[in-house]
Amino acid sequence: MASKLRILVPVKRVIDYAVKPRVNKAMTAVETAGVKHSMNPFDELSVEESVRIREKKRFPGGVEDICAISAGPPKAADVLRTAMAMGADRAIHVELKDGEEMEPLTVAKMLKAAAEREKSNLVILGKQSIDDDAAQTGQMLAGLLGWPQATQASKVEFGENNSITVTKEVDGGVETVKAKLPMVVTTDLRLNEPRYASLPNIMKAKKKKLDKVGLGDFGLTNEPRLKVLKVTEPAPRQGGGKVEDVDGLVAKLKELGAL
Amino acid sequence: MFPAARRAVARHASRVIGAAPSLASRAYARSRLLSTLAVLEQRDGQLSHGSLSAFTAAKKLGGTVHGFIAGNSVASAAQEAAKVEGVEKIISVDNLSYEKGLPENYAPLLIENIKKGGYTHVIAGHTAFGKSVLPRVAAMLDSQQISDITAIENEATFVRPIYAGNAIATVESSDTIKFITIRGTAFAAETPGSGSAAIEAGVDPKSEPISEWVSEDLAKSDRPDLATAGKVVSGGRGLKSKEEFDKVMLPLADALGAAVGASRAAVDSGYADNSLQVGQTGKVVAPQLYMAVGISGAIQHLAGMKDSKVIAAINKDADAPIFQVADVGLVGDLFEKVPELTEKVKGS
């Protein structure tokens, strides 16, 4: 079965990784209004990897389609445009209301429906989003689809008969696993170095197709299973001041019982 | 019941009662039905002691506690786990096909055993294994997992860091079966004692593998394991090269009996192995002593170490953010200060 790759790339709009998040006054969530947002860094790696698979002709049958998908508020369209400027062919925006959030399980159900509708045979996701830090969506999606999964990928290679070999970052080193398409892969930071979208490509991306749909189009409703009771700032840590020399350091560490 | 477990339950109950009596009585009534499966890890038949943290968390929930272990020749690992006090049963599945913990066949295995045991809670470590397997299982049983928890408030309410530890969320789950991964550093691992849990063979669905384990390449080291070490010395971009990193950091680690960690900058520059990275995207550690050498202290790095008991920093930039969290800071050239420190530690 010589197939072509149809890659689905889920991306998420999150608070920029360099911004220090602040908890809102009501202690119900992190303040997002007026804060710089960007594409989740691990998702940039997913887009980059998809585009490289095409450019380097790594899959024997070639890449037929790279479709970026995001569920989020109207502004999530910005990260989809970025994905298209990086090389995705088209995008699907599942529109949520401002401030509305989806849990990984719901996202995974939505992606399952999307992967089936778009006839995807490879889904490349980030290993975690840097806001919720859940690290679940890819595995949940693989479970729902019954597809093999390779998480925290640092290398993805293709072989004969739709086989795919993935080197994963695990505790203590790396592990290599092999499976056949269709498959779900999640990215780790070492996978690649994402490109910057050039101005001409940003202009071209404006002409690419961006479909807007609702969660209902996938037969789903957004019903959270987890109720957020409160969100607080972590207990602040006070710096203990500085010492003059190594002797001072050793003495202080002994005083603190650390040596 | 065993003394340790009774203490844990009593402590848990008193805290809940203090907070809200009505909730506590309700939780108590339900806790009789509460039963937790702690998923243990092993490698080559050796029990991973860090995974016994799952028992610690399970005991905090109250109710019955079972352990689950699967792999090739896991009998002795199961016997060791059975010695943890307060554990009623170890469910063991001996089959080579689960040895590497491939999620595609481990998930159906776990699901069959969860169904058979009728558990209300399933707990695993937030390790590479736990992160890979548990969400797959949770989704297949239509449950929204709660990841990387650092505290348990009651049977349904859990505390977890979000935004790289810059915010702490308390969440309440409405799912019938609660799937939880725990932050190992927040739940000190139980040690095998004089417990005598029953060991029972689990259900083995023998599902056809759809993935294949090819190979692994694990960094070998005689030093303590980074995630559980009592002391960690960590190097950053300031080390300048792999040679300097090894020359400066390794003797200090050996003098202190510490594990070696690294910042993302050091890892990306090839000074240290990926598996040594401390931070949001690497390991989260909370040792007695964390010594940051040539590390500025970016928020992603702090996410991985700011719960350390004592933080020490050596950096030539007096304005480096690391000094804002360090209990003791030394401004100076690490190439000079660290060898001096190493000698003084050795001499003391």
Automatic annotation (TrEMBL), chain A:
InterPro entries: ET-Flavoprotein_bsu_CS, ETF_a/b_N, ETF_b, ETF_beta_N, Rossmann-like_a/b/a_fold. Its cofactor is AMP; FAD. The electron transfer flavoprotein serves as a specific electron acceptor for several dehydrogenases, including five acyl-CoA dehydrogenases, glutaryl-CoA and sarcosine dehydrogenase. It transfers the electrons to the main mitochondrial respiratory chain via ETF-ubiquinone oxidoreductase (ETF dehydrogenase). The keyword Electron transport applies. GO terms for molecular function: electron transfer activity. SMART domains: ETF. Keywords: Electron transport, Mitochondrion, Transport. It comes from the Eukaryota. Binds 1 AMP per subunit. One of its GO terms (cellular component) is mitochondrial matrix. It holds the Pfam family ETF. The keyword Phosphoprotein does not apply. Residues 27-222 form the Electron transfer flavoprotein alpha/beta-subunit N-terminal domain. This is Probable electron transfer flavoprotein subunit beta. One of its GO terms (biological process) is amino acid catabolic process. It comes from Emericellopsis atlantica. It is found in: Mitochondrion matrix. Heterodimer of an alpha and a beta subunit. Belongs to the ETF beta-subunit/FixA family.
TrEMBL record, chain B:
FAD binds at residues 237, 263-264, 277-281, 294-301, 315. It comes from the Eukaryota. GO terms for biological process: fatty acid beta-oxidation using acyl-CoA dehydrogenase. GO terms for cellular component: mitochondrial matrix. Residues 36-222 form the Electron transfer flavoprotein alpha/beta-subunit N-terminal domain. PROSITE patterns: ETF_ALPHA (PS00696). Binds 1 FAD per dimer. It is found in: Mitochondrion matrix. Its cofactor is FAD. InterPro entries: DHS-like_NAD/FAD-binding_dom (IPR029035), ETF_a/b_N (IPR014730), ETF_a/FixB (IPR001308), ETF_alpha_N (IPR033947), ETF_asu_C (IPR014731), ETF_asu_C_CS (IPR018206), Rossmann-like_a/b/a_fold (IPR014729). GO terms for molecular function: electron transfer activity; flavin adenine dinucleotide binding. Heterodimer of an alpha and a beta subunit. PANTHER family: ELECTRON TRANSFER FLAVOPROTEIN ALPHA, ELECTRON TRANSFER FLAVOPROTEIN SUBUNIT ALPHA, MITOCHONDRIAL. The electron transfer flavoprotein serves as a specific electron acceptor for several dehydrogenases, including five acyl-CoA dehydrogenases, glutaryl-CoA and sarcosine dehydrogenase. It transfers the electrons to the main mitochondrial respiratory chain via ETF-ubiquinone oxidoreductase (ETF dehydrogenase). Belongs to the ETF alpha-subunit/FixB family. This is Probable electron transfer flavoprotein subunit alpha. The lineage of its organism: Eukaryota, Fungi, Dikarya, Ascomycota, Pezizomycotina.
